[in-house]
Amino acid sequence: MLFETLLNSVSLEPELQKEINNLLGKKKVIKELKKEPRINIISTFLEEKFAYFSDYVRKLSDNEK
Question: Number of folded domains in the chain?
Fold first, then answer.
C-alpha cells in the first residue's frame, strides 16, 4: 500500500496532515542530501504512536505467556 493511500485513509489533525503533505511534496522533488530540522508536530505524533504500539505489543506478548 502506498503511504499516501494509507495517510488518506486515517483521520489526522489538520495541522499534522498539512505538515505531512508538505514533507511528502518536498521529498518528491529533492534528494536527501542534508538533514533538515525536525517538524515538531510530526515528530511528536510519531513518538506517541511508537510508544503506544510498543506498549500494545508488549501487553500482547505478556498475555501469550
Answer: 1
Residue 23 and residue 41 in contact, taking contact as beta carbons nearer than 8 Å: no
50-61 tens-digit pLDDT = 899 888 888 888
- The SS3 of residue 60 is helix
Q: What is the pLDDT of residues 35-47, one digit of tens each?
A: 778 889 999 999 9
- Structural domain boundaries, residue 26: 3-64
Going by C-alpha positions, the residue among 50, 34, 40, 36 that lies closest to residue 16 is: 40
What pTM does this model have? 0.62
DSSP H/E element including 8: helix 3-8
With beta carbons less than 8 A apart as the criterion, state whether 7 and 30 touch. Answer: no
